[in-house]
Amino acid sequence: MTMEVDILELSDRSAKFVLSNTTAAFANGIRRAALADVPTIAITEVNIYNNTSVLYDEQLGLRLALIPLTSNMEDFVPKEECNCGDFCPACQVSLTLSAEGPGIVYSQDLVSSDDKVQPADPNIPIADLREGQKIVLEAIAQMGYGSKHSRWQAGVACGYKNMPKVEFSGCDLCGACVTECPVNIIKMGASSAEISQEDMFKCTLCRLCEGVCDIDAIDVKVDGHSFIFMMESDGSYSTKELILNAGNVIKDKATSLADILSTL
Known about the structure:
6 helices; elongated; alpha+beta; 33% strand; single chain
């Protein structure tokens, strides 16, 4: 069987789609790759030259490290995989910040040495400076993996569930299941209760309808080869890029494994 993908919702930051004709192992592989194996850029080191704000240097560094930065997976490599030995544009990017109060310092105030590496959201507050307070620093951003630190986690809310299958047989139209359903997706038809295909995606598999039916006319099951997938991006990549990169990571790992096995 050929795997099928049906897009239900898609935006720059979130997506909802159905994976069909596949296994739970593959669906979980996509989820894990998006969370831990798709590399992204994040601030790892901060050289602080002046900080008279109310934040300690460590607090300032933590805030900067968790600002998502846009990146291109093909343009950079993690520091440990780079052959430069020290510093080069392929593994590190410098961002500078120079601000003086009064006013709030936002992520958009960071000035990057690489136009492709910018804060994914320009309105992330960094510090609230009072009159005379200053922040002057240089931040070094490197590429890494979410499996090593959350600062590199491009996928922030990735999960899936099995496609529900609710079947009605011998329904007596009592309406108890309609009242019991917490998401209000069961409707009364001419001869039986029913759930539309569109509403089936909303089923939470709570099985309350099945339990309240005295004549066992409802059978709630799952499709073991079809999954409803939800994914959100922190902005480092668009959701579409994140999904494609996760798939490519799995493909590359499978190819590498095949090459290793072929030499045995």
